[in-house]
Amino acid sequence: MAELLTAEGVRLGRTAADRTSAIDQVGAALLELGAVDPEYLTAMHEREASVSTFIGEGVAIPHGTDASRVHVRRSSLAVLQFPEGVDWGGEDVRLCVGIAAKGTEQVGILSALAHVLMDPERAAELRQAPDADTVLRILRTVDTEKDEETAQ
Which residue in the list 45, 63, 71, 115 is annotated as catalytic? Predict the structure, then answer.
């Protein structure tokens, strides 16, 4: 995760009127990071229309469709915090982790993120993180845990 998420990709204290606005903001962050072409943003909405990216614990992981990977310049993450919450099809989302992944990397990234984001304590800490350093520290534990699992 360390190479996928930088402090520039962390946006805290955001507001969004609805799920569409939140996805627009996540896509814009990935675009600003130079990770995707503009067409990827449309594909993020297409993905959401076909299957919700809500994973529980107040977290959604917006990402493009399989076909949209041609619009990914480099694999990257963007983390946006919405303290007031966003209605995500009847669910309350306060954290969005946007993914741009090249090739087949998306499955591994989703799996690694789910390991952290489905943990109620760590998800709560991310939803309430006061600064980018806290977000980076929590998400970088994925790398450490992955290394420990591989060593066993």
Answer: 63
